[in-house]
Amino acid sequence: MATNPSFRARARFDSFRVDMSSGELFRAGDRVPIQEKPLQVLRLLLEAEGKVVTRDQLRSALWPKDTFVDFEHGVNTAVKKVRQALEDSADSPKFVETLPKFGYRFMVPVEWEADARSADAWSRAARPNVVPIAQPHPTLVPQPIPPPNKRKLTGGVAFIALSVIVIAGLLATESNYLSHTRLGLWLRKPFAARRAEPPQVVSQRRLTANPSDSPLTGGVLSPDGKFLAYTDPSGFYLRQVDGGETHPVPLPRGFDPLPESWFPDSAHLVVTWFGDQRERPRMGVPRTGPPSLWEISVLGGTPHKLVEEGSSARVSPDGSKIAFLTGPWDNEQIWLIAADGSGLRKIADGGHEQFGAVAWEPDGNRIACVRTISTPALERPSKQIEVHDVTNPVDASGPSEVILSDPRLGDEIAWANSGRLIYSLEEVEPNRGDFNLWGMQLEPRTGRPSGTPKRITNDRTSIAGISVALGGKRMALRRNSFQGDIYVTEVEAQGRRLSTPRRLTLDEREDWPTAWTPDNKAVLFLSDRDGPSHIFKQDIAKTQPELLVGGNVVASAPRLTPDGLSLLYLVSVKSSPTSDSLRLMRVPVSGGPSRLVLEETGISGFQCARLPATLCLYGKFEPKSEYFRFFTFDPDGREGKEILAGRIRKGEGSANEWSISPDGKYLVTPKSQNPYDGPALRVLDLAAGTEISIPVPDIGLVMGMDWAVDSKSLWIGGYMGRGAWGTRSGVLNVDLNGKERVVLEGLNPEIWFAIPSPDGHHLALMGNTQTSNMWLLENF
Class of the 8-125 domain? Predict the structure, then answer.
C-alpha cells in the first residue's frame, strides 16, 4: 500500500470527509456515525488508492493473529457498515466495489490533506489494534545446482519460459491490437482476474449551460471531437469544444431540424425535420407530419432529403450507410439506407415493441440497440441490448443476438473503436430515475461480451444522447433532468381562457395531482418527497403539504368517494415475486386508519362519480383476454359487475387514460394513441350502451383527461406537436359536440393533464419541467 512521509490526516471524496486524527466521518459537514472496525476498513480502502484490498489483508489488519473470531462474518459485517455509512449499494456500487471471493476496491478519486503531527494521535486513538498490511516480498529458498549435463537443457527451458511470459504479457495488455484477438482475450482472463486495476478517473466538463426554460433538444459530437452540433428552442448551433466559440448554423428559413449524426468528414450531418407536409395553422398551433431525414452542411447550402419518414439516424463509421428508426412515437422498426438515400431495407420490426437509437460496430458489420418490451402483465417494461448483422443484402428481420437483459437499461447506446459497448443503466432504489454509463467489452469476431461490465459515471440525471469521437478518447453526453410539479390556474371567461399558472409544489420531488378536496381549498396528490410514493394534501394558499397516507406502503392513484368524505387509493401486494395483485384501500379525508375495499389483479385505474351519482369503476388488464374491461365496485366493499359496453379491444385505442363523468353517465377513453391516426375521443353512454367519436385535432398525443364539473365538456392535456424547438404541449376544452378551445400552450413545463376543482373555478395542472445540457467526458 502506498505511503507518504507526511501523515495523511484527512481524506475527501464526493461529499464525504474522513478525519484520520479524530476517527470521524463527515458528509457535507454533518457527522456520520461509524464504528471502529468499519472506519478501519474505510481507511484501508482509501489508502489503497484504487487498488484491490483483499479479504486476507483486511483480516490481518483488523484482528491480531491470536484473536478468535469468525473472520468471514466479521469482514462482511464491517464492509456492510461502511456501505451503510456511505449510503452505498452492493448491487449497484458507487464507492465500494466487490470482487467476489477476493476483496474490495474503492471506486472514486480521493484527495488527501497531509499533517505529520497527527500521525501518532491517530495511531493511539483511532486504530489501537490495526496491524499494517504487509507488502509481499520474495522468499529466498536455496536451490540445488543442476548437474553439468542438465545445464544446457535447463537454460533452454528457461529461455522458452521467458519468451512465453513476454508474449503473454503483450497479449494480455489491452492497449495493443493482439490483445483483442481470440488468443489475446483468452490470455487476458487470468490476468484480469488477478490484477488490481489502477483507478480510472473520468474527466468531464460542461459544454452548455442552458436554463430550464430553454433546454437542449439535441446534441452530437463530431467524429474528430472538435465540434458540438446542438439545438435548443432558439435555433441550431455549432460550438468549438476546446475554444468554446459558438455560431448559428446557416439554414434555410423555416427549416428547423434536430441534429442526429455526423458523417466522417466532420462537416456534414444527418438531421431530422418535422416539416410542413401536413401543417394546418389553427388557433396558433402548428400541425406537423412525421419526421423526415435530411443531410446538411455546417457551412450552409441547400439541405438534401434522404428519407421521407424516419428519426434517430446514425451514420456508419465509414459514412456509407445510415441506420434509422420509424414509428410516430414508439420507433417500432429499424431501417437501413445508403448514404445517398438509396437501397432502403428493413433490419428489424418490433411490432408493438420499441427500439432506441442504434450504435454501429467499428467495422460497420453490426448494429446494437436497446429493445423495450411492454406488456400489461409486467410491472415495468423488459429491456434488452441486442446485436443485428447488417451484411445481409436482403431484408433481415429475423432473430437477433441478445447480449444483455435488464429492465433498468436506458435507450441510449454507443460502440467505441476499442470494441467497448457503452450503455446507460438506471440506479436502484432510492435513486431510481438516475442513469449512469457502463462499458462492456465485446469480442470482435462474434460481438458477444468478453468481460464484466464496468461503471463509467456516477451522476444523478437521465441520459438522452451519447456520441463518441476521436477514436474513443472523447464522449459527449446529453443529460436530462425531469421534475413533475403541480401548478394551479384560475378558469376565466366562462372557460375560454386560463390565468397564468402558479407553481404549488415547491420541492424538487415528483408530484402528481389526482383530485381536490370537496371544499375546493386543497389539492390531493402523490409524491416521493419522503421516499416511497405517498399521498399528500396541500392548501392552494399554503407552501407546504400535509401527509395523508405514509408509512411503509407505496400508494398510488388517490381518488375521492362519491360523497367526498373518504379517499381511495391502491397499494401493491407482494406475496410472491410474480404477484401483480393490488389492494384498493379507503381512508377518511379527515384522517384515521385505512381499511380494505377489495383486492384484485391487473387493476389499471379507478374513479367515482359525485353525489347524487354513486357509480364507481375500476379498469382491469387480463393477459389472456383480448379486452380491457371495466367493473363497478362499492366503496363499502360489496362486489360489482362488468360494464360489458365499456370493453376496449386490445390494440384499439388506449386503456391507460379514461375518466367517468361526475354525473356517472359517460365513460371517455382515447380512440388511439397514434398521433397520425387523427386524435379522437371515444365517449360511451353507459345507460344506452352507445358511443360517439369526438375528433381533437389540436392535440397530437393525449396524455390525460378529466371531465368538467357539469359533465358537458372535457379538459384534455397532452402534446400538440414536435420540432427542433421541442415538444409543445397544452390544455384544451372540448364539448360533446366536438367544439374545441385551446386555453393554454407552451414548451416548458410540458402540461400532461388538468384536474378541475369541484366548483370548476380552478384547475390543478400536472407540469413536467425539463432541463437538458451537454457534457464532455475524457479518459473513460
Answer: mainly alpha
